[in-house]
Amino acid sequence: MAHGTTDKEFKDPYNVFYFIGLLLALVPATLVASLTMYKVLSGGHF
Predict the structure, then answer these.
(1) For 39, phi and psi rounded to 5 degrees?
(2) Model pTM score
(3) How many CA atoms lie within 13 A of 40 on its CB side?
(4) pLDDT per residue over 21-35, tens digit each?
C-alpha cells in the first residue's frame, strides 16, 4: 500500500508539469493561428 502511495505522489507532479508544458506549447500555436485567421479575415473584408 505504501509503495502505491509513493508511486501516485511521484506521478501527480509529473502529470502537472506535462500538462503545463502542453499548455505552453499550445498557447503560441493558438496565438499564431488566431492572428493568421484575423489577418485573412481582415484581408478578405478590406
Answers:
(1) -65, -45
(2) 0.45
(3) 6
(4) 999 999 999 999 999
CA distance between the termini of the chain? 66
d(CA 20, CA 3): 27
Measure the CA–CA gap between 33 and 21, rounded to whole angstroms: 19
* CA 8/CA 21 separation, integer angstroms: 20
Q: For residue 15, give the C-alpha cell.
A: 502529470
Place of cell 511521484: 10
SS3 state of residue 29: helix
